[in-house]
């Protein structure tokens, strides 16, 4: 048995597609994600520090992605990383925040946080 994953099955040769059984995978909703994560680690459901709602949006229905994003979120130093402070052109918080981010986070953390902010800003 061979499992072939493709995000564009229409681009596979017809001879390959004709020998495959297609099994579509759908994104999980929040309830299904919670059930999967409870099975993986029941202690997580009683965690004192709940995930920000945007983490679910960022995970896009993937429990594995949610675990990764949860790990990234919890690795950030606490101290508040406000979403959208750069939107107010009169605010001087944007440049100070950029400096603080560069000093406190490594490049991967900076990129992850910016991605998370973008998703959170679109959801708002």
Describe what this molecule looks like in 3D.
The chain is built from 6 helices and no strands. The model has no long low-confidence stretch (mean pLDDT 78). With 124 residues, it is mostly helical. It has one domain (9-123). The protein has helices spanning 14-17, 30-40, 53-59, 63-75, 93-104, 107-123.
How many H/I helices? 6
Provide the succession of SSEs. HHHHHH
Poorly predicted regions are: none
Label the overall shape. elongated
Strand runs, count: 0
Average pLDDT works out at: 78
Describe the main β-sheet briefly. Answer: none
Element layout with pairings:
Layout: H1 14-17, H2 30-40, H3 53-59, H4 63-75, H5 93-104, H6 107-123
What would you say about this model in short?
By secondary structure, the protein is mainly α.
Using brief descriptors, characterize the structure shown:
mainly alpha; 124 residues; 52% helix; single chain
